[in-house]
Q: What sequence folds into this?
C-alpha cells in the first residue's frame, strides 16, 4: 500500500552515537565558570506550622553565597492546572506551613556541594506540629486535620462522569459484583536524578538548563513564580535520562537555581540525590477503587459504578489529570452502556503523587481488568471471549468524551490468544503454572487545555536549503523515548530526504517555535508529528509550484518529494534535485529563505484525546509452591498503535513497559511509615533486573489512525497498564490467590 | 589534607592533589571532566557509574580516588579512543536499540566489556547475570542482552576470520 522510504523502518536512534560514547550531555554534566552548588532543606515532619526559620548561622559559613527561605521569594503559588487557579497550591519554598516529610523549606548555594550540605545543618526551624493524616479514608472524615487552608475539605478535586442509567443497568443485570481494590505508590525511578542549572545575564534574563519533559511549562511557571515575563526566561532541555511523567512540572530546585542565580549573579546548579528522589519525589498515585459491574448471563456488560479515591499526597501536582483519566479509563475497552464514575483526589501528608507512565490508567485498568477476569470465571465464560463480546470497535463513541477513530482491540485479543496458545495453556494442569490476560487502551495526547496555553499544542519550523538539507526546529522533548528520531523520520519521509540531511534543534524555548506542551500523555508523535507535516506541506506547496512551472506541467499532475528530488510523481526526468528546487524558489524571491511553520491543536476531537491505542497482553507465570515466589516466564503482547513509524523504537517502548509493569505487579513499592518513605535506595526499592525480565513475543496490529501523522498514534505508555492485571490473573490461575491489593508478594500468596 | 595521586585514565596519566574523601566518580566527572561516567544512585546499587580499574569492574561512586592511586582506569570515553571507529559493543548497542535515554548506557557498556573480557562467549543467562548490577529503567534489558551477544559474536569472529584467510 504505502511505499515509505523512512517510515516503518528500524532506523537507529539519531543520538545513539553520542550516548554510546558518553559524549551526550545531561544537565549535571554541565559546568559554568563561577558556578555555585545548591542544596535544599526539607521538612523532617509531615505537617506543621513554621514558627520561625533562622538562617543566620548558615549564611555566615565560609563558602556560602546565598540562603533563601519562602520569605525571601515573591510567594506566588504554581501548579500545572493554570486553567483552574484554585488547584495551584504549591509554593517553590514553604510559606508558613509544611505538608509532607521532604517539603522544601530553604535553599543554600555555596562554592561546593559539601559546604552547601553543611550549611543546611546550621538552619534552625521552629515547627508547631499539627496532626497529620496519612490515609485517604481518614483524610476525608469530617473532623480530619485540614491540609490546605484554601480548601475547605481535604478533597481537592471532584470529578464525575455519568451516562446511561446505572440503576436500570444493574436492575437488568443477571450478575453483579462489587470489589474494592487498592494500589500502592511506586516511583518513576528514571535513572537520571533531577538536575537544573540556571544562569542570569546582564539584563536579568534567565537561562535554565534542566532535566524536564516540559520546557514550555517550566518556562511559564518559572516566569510567574519569579514575577518575571515569560520571554525573559529561556529553558533548554539537554539530554534527559528518563522521565516517565515525573519531570513534567515546575520543581522547587528549578525555581531556586534561577532565583539564586539572579540574587548572586552566578550560575547555580542543583542535582538531587537518589535518596531525595525516592523519598520525596513524585510517584504514581496510590488509589482505593470501589467498582461494581453488572452483566447479563451471556456476558453482555450492562453497567458499571466506579468510585476512586486518589491519594494525592500534600499537593495537587498532576493529580487532577489523573483523576479525570482514571475515570475515563474505567469506561474504556468495553461498551459500558451505563456508567458512573466519581473520582476524588484527596490530600494527605505524604509526598505528592503525580503523573507516571499511564497517568491513572494502570490503577484503573488493574481494577477493571481484574474484575473482568473474576466475572468471566463466575459467568463460566472464557476471559478472552468475554472481552471480545464487549470490545470496543472503530466508530464507537464514549458519550461526551470521544469517538474511537481506529481500534484494533479485537484483533489484539485474537492475536494474543493465538500466540500464547491460550486455550490449551488455560487448561494446563502443571503445579505452579498459570496464565492470565490483561488489556489496555490509552490516549495519544490530551485535548483538555488545563495548562491554559495561548499557543498551539505543538509547533514546528522547517527551513530548507539549496544544499539539499533541512533544519527542523521543535520544542518537542526527547526524554529518552526517541522523539527526535521519530520526528526526523516524519520530516525525512515528507520531504524525500535522508535522516542525515536533517539538522534538528529541539526543546529550547528561546530558539524553537512556540510552543509545545511537552512530553506526557503520549502526545509527541501525533501532535508534533502533525505540526511537522503541516510545515512540510507548506514547503512542498512552494517547491512543487516552482518545479511545476519550470517543467510546464499540466495542473492535473501530482508531484512528489522522493530520494532527494522534487518531481512529477513517478517521473524523475520531470524534476530536479531538492536543493536545486530550493535555490530556484529563493532566486524568484530575491534570496528570501524557504521556511515554513506548522502547527497542531486537536479540535473537534472531544474532551480527552484525538486518538486511542489498544492492546492485550498475556502473562505466563511459575509460582514456587513453597516460597510463593512468582517467576514470570513469558509475556505475549499484541498492540494497536496505528502505523508503526519505527518498529525497533516501538519494541523498545513495549519492553520498557513490561519492565515497569513487572515491577508494579511484583517488586516495586515505596514503603511508607507515618508519612515517611522508608524505601530510600535501590536496594529497598527493587527495580526488576536483567535476570527478572521475561522473554516476550509481540505483534503490532496495524490500523490507520486518521488523526495521526501517517496514521500513527500512541505506543508504549498504555502498555504500562496490562502487565499487572495479566500477572495477577496468571497468579490466580496458578495458585487460587486473587490479588486485589497490589503488589503481589510471596507472603500474600502463601497466606491466601 | 590533600593527597597526591597518579591516575592512568584511558591511557592518559594525571597527577592530582585530592581530598581523601573524594570518590573516583567525583574525580572523573568533576576534576577530569570525563562526564560520560554517570551517577545514578551514589550507593552502589545502579551500575551507572561503572568503570574498569585494572581489569576489574567497579562502582566509581563507592570507590575512593585514593584507593586507585597508580591504577589503570577505563571509562566509556576510552572504549573507542580514536573517536572514529566505535567499539563493537558500542556499535551493537546503537544498532540493536539497546539505548533509550542513555543514562545507563556507559555503565552497561563497561559491564559488558568486563564480562566479555572474562568470558568471550557468554550464554544469554551469563549475560543477564553479568548485567545484574546495572539497572535500566527504559529498555527492559532484552535489547541490551541482544546487543552484547551480537558484539560477542563479532568480536570472536574477527580474529579467526583473519587467521583463515
Ligand atoms: S551511581 Fe554508583 S552504583 Fe549507582
Ligand atoms: S536507557 Fe534509560 S536507563 Fe537504560
A:
Amino acid at each position: 500500500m504505502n511505499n515509505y522510504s523512512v517510515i516503518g523502518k528500524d532506523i537507529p536512534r539519531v543520538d545513539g552515537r553520542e550516548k554510546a560514547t558518553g559524549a551526550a550531555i545531561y544537565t549535571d554534566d554541565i559546568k559554568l565558570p563561577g558556578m555555585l552548588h545548591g542544596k535544599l532543606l526539607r521538612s523532617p515532619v509531615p505537617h506543621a506550622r513554621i514558627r520561625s526559620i533562622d538562617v543566620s548561622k548558615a549564611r555566615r559559613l565560609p563558602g556560602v553565597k546565598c540562603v533563601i527561605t519562602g520569605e525571601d521569594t515573591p510567594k506566588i503559588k504554581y501548579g500545572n492546572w493554570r486553567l483552574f487557579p484554585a488547584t495551584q497550591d504549591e509554593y517553590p519554598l514553604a510559606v508558613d506551613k509544611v505538608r509532607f516529610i521532604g517539603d522544601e523549606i530553604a535553599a543554600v548555594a555555596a562554592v561546593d556541594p559539601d559546604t552547601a550540605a553543611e550549611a543546611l545543618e546550621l538552619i534552625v526551624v521552629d515547627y508547631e506540629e499539627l496532626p497529620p493524616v496519612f490515609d485517604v479514608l481518614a483524610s476525608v472524615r469530617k473532623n480530619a486535620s485540614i491540609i490546605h487552608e484554601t480548601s475547605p475539605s481535604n478533597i481537592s478535586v471532584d470529578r464525575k462522569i455519568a451516562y446511561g442509567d446505572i440503576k436500570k443497568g444493574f436492575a437488568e443485570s443477571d450478575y453483579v459484583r462489587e470489589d474494592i481494590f487498592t494500589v500502592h505508590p511506586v516511583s518513576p525511578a528514571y535513572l537520571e536524578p533531577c538536575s537544573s542549572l540556571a544562569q542570569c545575564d546582564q539584563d536579568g534574563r534567565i537561562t535554565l538548563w534542566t532535566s524536564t519533559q516540559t520546557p514550555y511549562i517550566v518556562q511559564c511557571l518559572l516566569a510567574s513564580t519569579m514575577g518575571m515575563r515569560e520571554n525573559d526566561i529561556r529553558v533548554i532541555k539537554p539530554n534527559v535520562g528518563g522521565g516517565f511523567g515525573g519531570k513534567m512540572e515546575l520543581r522547587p530546585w528549578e525555581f531556586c537555581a534561577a532565583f539564586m542565580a539572579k540574587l548572586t549573579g552566578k550560575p547555580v546548579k542543583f542535582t538531587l540525590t537518589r535518596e531525595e528522589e525516592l523519598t520525596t519525589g513524585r510517584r504514581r498515585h496510590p488509589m482505593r477503587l470501589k467498582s461494581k459491574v453488572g452483566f447479563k448471563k451471556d456476558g453482555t456488560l450492562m453497567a458499571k459504578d466506579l468510585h476512586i479515591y486518589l491519594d494525592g499526597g500534600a499537593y495537587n501536582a498532576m493529580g487532577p489529570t489523573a483523576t479525570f483519566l482514571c475515570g475515563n479509563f474505567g469506561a474504556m475497552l468495553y461498551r459500558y452502556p451505563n456508567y458512573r464514575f466519581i473520582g476524588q483526589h484527596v490530600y494527605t501528608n505524604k509526598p505528592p503523587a503525580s503523573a507516571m507512565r499511564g497517568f491513572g490508567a494502570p490503577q484503573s485498568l488493574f481494577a477493571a481488568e481484574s474484575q473482568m477476569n473474576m466475572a468471566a470465571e463466575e459467568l463460566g465464560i472464557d476471559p478472552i471471549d468475554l472481552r471480545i463480546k464487549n470490545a470496543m470497535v472503530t466508530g464507537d463513541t464514549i458519550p461526551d468524551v470521544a469517538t474511537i477513530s481506529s481500534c484494533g482491540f479485537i484483533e489484539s485479543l485474537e492475536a494474543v490468544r493465538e500466540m500464547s496458545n491460550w486455550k490449551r495453556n488455560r487448561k494446563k494442569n502443571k503445579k505452579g503454572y498459570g496464565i492470565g490476560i490483561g488489556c489496555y487502551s490509552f490516549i495519544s495526547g490530551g485535548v483538555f487545555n488545563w495548562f491554559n496555553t495561548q499557543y498551539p499544542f505543538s509547533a514546528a519550523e522547517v527551513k530548507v536549503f539549496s544544499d539539499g538539507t533541512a533544519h527542523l526546529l521543535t520544542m518537542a522533548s526527547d526524554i529518552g523515548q526517541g522523539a527526535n528520531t521519530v520526528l526526523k523520520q516524519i520530516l525525512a519521509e515528507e520531504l524525500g530526504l535522508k535522516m542525515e540531511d536533517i539538522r534538528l534543534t529541539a526543546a529550547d524555548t528561546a530558539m524553537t517555535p512556540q510552543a509545545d506542551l511537552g512530553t506526557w500523555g503520549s502526545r509527541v508523535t501525533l501532535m508534533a508529528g502533525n505540526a511537522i507535516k503541516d510545515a512540510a506541506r507548506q514547503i512542498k506547496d512552494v517547491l512543487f509550484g516552482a518545479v511545476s512551472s519550470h517543467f510546464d506541467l499540466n495542473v492535473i499532475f501530482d508531484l512528489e518529494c522522493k530520494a532527494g528530488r522534487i518531481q512529477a510523481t513517478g517521473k524523475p526526468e520531470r524534476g530536479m534535485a531538492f536543493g536545486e528546487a530550493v535555490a530556484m524558489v529563493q532566486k524568484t524571491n530575491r534570496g528570501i529563505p524557504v521556511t515554513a511553520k506548522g502547527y497542531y491543536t486537536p479540535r473537534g476531537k472531544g474532551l480527552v484525546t484525538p486518538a486511542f491505542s489498544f492492546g492485550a497482553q498475556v502473562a505466563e507465570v511459575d509460582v514456587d509452591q513453597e516460597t510463593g515466589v512468582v517467576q514470570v516466564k513469558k509475556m505475549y503482547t499484541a498492540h494497536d498503535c496505528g502505523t508503526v513509524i519505527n518498529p525497533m523504537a516501538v519494541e523498545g517502548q513495549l519492553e520498557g513497559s513490561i519492565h515497569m509493569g513487572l515491577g508494579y505487579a511484583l517488586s516495586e513499592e515505596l514503603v511508607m511509615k507515618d508519612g515517611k518513605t522508608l524505601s530510600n535506595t535501590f536496594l529497598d526499592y527493587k527495580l526488576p533486573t536483567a535476570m527478572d525480565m521475561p522473554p516476550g513475543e509481540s505483534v503490532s496490529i496495524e490500523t490507520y489512525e486518521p488523526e495521526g501523522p501517517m496514521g500513527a498514534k500512541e505506543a508504549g505508555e498504555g502498555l504500562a497498564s496490562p502487565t499487572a492485571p495479566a500477572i495477577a490473573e496468571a497468579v490466580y490461575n496458578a495458585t487460587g490467590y486473587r490479588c486485589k491489593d497490589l503488589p503481589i508478594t510471596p507472603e500474600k500468596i502463601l497466606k491466601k | 589534607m590533600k593527597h597526591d595521586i597518579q591516575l592512568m585514565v584511558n591511557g592518559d596519566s594525571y597527577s592530582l592533589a585530592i581530598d581523601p574523601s573524594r570518590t573516583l566518580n567525583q574525580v572523573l566527572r568533576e576534576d577530569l571532566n570525563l562526564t560520560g561516567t554517570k551517577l545514578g544512585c551514589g550507593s552502589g546499587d545502579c551500575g551507572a557509574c561503572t568503570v574498569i580499574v585494572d581489569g576489574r569492574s567497579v562502582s566509581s561512586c563507592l570507590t575512593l580516588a585514593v584507593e586507585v592511586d597508580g591504577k589503570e582506569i577505563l571509562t566509556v570515553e576510552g572504549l573507542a579512543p580514536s573517536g572514529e571507529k566505535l567499539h563493537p559493543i558500542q556499535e551493537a548497542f546503537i544498532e540493536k536499540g539497546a539505548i533509550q535515554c542513555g543514562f545507563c548506557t556507559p555503565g552497561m557498556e563497561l559491564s559488558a566489556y568486563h564480562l566479555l573480557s572474562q568470558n568471550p562467549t557468554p550464554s544469554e543467562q551469563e549475560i543477564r547475570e553479568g548485567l545484574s548490577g546495572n539497572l535500566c529503567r527504559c529498555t527492559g534489558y532484552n535489547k541490551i542482552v541482544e546487543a552484547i551477544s551480537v558484539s560477542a559474536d563479532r568480536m570472536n569472529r574477527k580474529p579467526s576470520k583473519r587467521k583463515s584467510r
Summary: DSSP finds 19 helices and 32 strands in chain A. Chain A has three domains: 16-22+457-600, 31-130+191-242+247-280, 283-448+606-751. The first strand of chain A starts at residue 36 and ends at 42. Residues B 39-42, 44-49, 59, 61 surround FE2/S2 (inorganic) cluster (ligand 1) (CB under 6 Å).
